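idk why but the lab printer keeps eating my pages so im just putting this in chat instead. protein + NAP:
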Amino acid sequence: MPDPVFQRIALIGAGLIGASIARAAAETGAAEVIALYDASADVRARADALGLGSVAPTLEAAVSGADCVILCVPVGAIGAVAAGAVPHMKDGAILTDVGSVKAEAARALAAAAEPRLHVIPGHPIAGTEQSGPEAGFATLFRGAWHILTPLPGGGEGYDAAVDALSAFWQRLGARVETMDAARHDRVLAITSHLPHLIAFNIVSTAFDMETVEQGEVVKYSAGGFRDFTRIAASDPVMWRDVFLNNKEAVLECLGRFSEDLAALQRAIRWGDGDMLIKEFTRARSIRKAIIDAGQDCSAVNFGRNAPDTEDQA
Ligand code: NAP
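predcted complex ->
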């Protein structure tokens, strides 16, 4: 096995993403020592039982001596966790995160950090609707994008730190891209955040209709609705924090979406079949482009049985 990228990493938050990093880092030898900490004693005990790494009793114990600290907590918790971790981190260490919103995460990390550390916000475009340490698996990041949003004016040694963090994620199997945080948030608003909002909403509407239709909604759920329920099963805390922290970009997308939906509504009302064919044909070509880009496979059932092609958040 090649040399580890980092001697010691600390993963704060041992849920789906933290546990997946722990498993992938162990499997690929990306880190010699993997320390974990979670605010929940129950999660810490479960992470320990799963053998995810060296589970620390406190945040301080986890981050002390770590070359790279990765915050794997909901976006709304990043600032407080960073503030607790920073005083105990060693000089020159990397402080990064995996939050699904980058401008706000970057602001929170930078506010807590000290100049002796390298703050490099990040986001793996890989995930599932599952939560908790049991949900983690080593291949989650394989072939997926990992977006880094380095801060401007990072100081001495910053570029080398970005290179080291990129090498770490590449070792886990990810393809690394750097991007401006605001651009990340605009792109993810349409590719991930809005689709989740629509899924939460359609499931909630169907839930209300379920009482009226007396069980028929669940019974015939395979007709498209089932895929929405899978996305809508995602963690409520994580998604609350995504929407509250990427408000502007999500509201902008939602405005455009509502206008387009109104146009479809009008076409149905006035029997404008040509317009429906035109829009549906265009949508179909985007699906083909996603498959051609290797972001999903064309297997029946959207290839959902293969862990490598699970939903990406
Ligand atoms: P998760 O499975 O719910 O795990 C998060 C863990 O963090 C939970 O064990 C939680 O404990 C713990 N935690 C919460 N506050 C904490 C604190 N102050 N200190 C220490 N631990 C704390 O969530 P996840 O899916 O791994 O998501 C983690 C991060 O990854 C989020 O920022 C999310 O936006 C990002 N992300 C998620 C996905 C995805 O598909 N799920 C994909 C890419 C990025 P409790 O449960 O006890 O609160």
